[in-house]
Amino acid sequence: MTEPAPTPSKDTRALVRVLDRHEVTVVLDVGANVGQYARRLRQGGWSGRIVSFEPLPAVHAGLTAAAAGDPAWEVPAPLALGDRDGELTLNISAESDMSSALPFRPEMAELLDSAGYRGTAVVPLRRLDGVFPAHVRDGDRPFLKIDTQGFEPAVLDGAQAVLDRLVGLQMELALVPVYEGEIVWQAMIAQLAGLGFEPVLFIPGYFNRRTARLMSMDGIFIRRDLLDPLGG
User: Fold this and answer.
1) CB 28 within 8 A of CB 144
2) Which residue, 83, 78, 77, 76, is CA-closest to 127?
3) What whole-number distance in Å separates Cα of residue 30 and Cα of residue 152?
4) What is the pTM of this model?
5) Which domains are assigned to the chain?
6) Least buried of 29, 59, 104, 144, by fewest C-beta within 10 Å?
């Protein structure tokens, strides 16, 4: 007997509504891990193309398996996205979705059980604007999702030449910085405003029960010139 499909959350339905409202045709999923984000989009009923980037080979295998059987979900070879072409050393966490190019802040050891690294991996690094033509077609309306554990500004820097092609983007915003050098949410929203993107939706992220405090949230931003002056 076939298991019923999971019911999408209110936040997922809202996100899919944003994608549909702005006629997004392809989502560039940077920092895909094992495909959690793409699966949520599918659960929410979004059927457009997804291109998922994941740098860690061991995690990449799970991502490839998740995408199997979905012809509109593409998984390139293991690759990190950043502000240059070359290689990147990633710190590997016991929880793979906490692995980062940045070190944990020392005080996180008391707040997060996963705030420690068990090794490193050197992975290929490319600028997004360099790989963009291979995955975005003429006439596409692309949307960029970045979840790279504090490395988001570097991904943005490597997308400078194609920012004007993006309909919008989604980015993890730190209310409480977890990594050394991580930019806090107010500064990131201001930076995106300077690039011409305005927030249309916020989705709560990790809630720390020890401190009873929300640590992060996702911000969904749309290019300012595509927004209705009445808020649509």
Assistant:
1) yes
2) 83
3) 9
4) 0.93
5) 10-83+127-214 (3.40.50.150)
6) 59
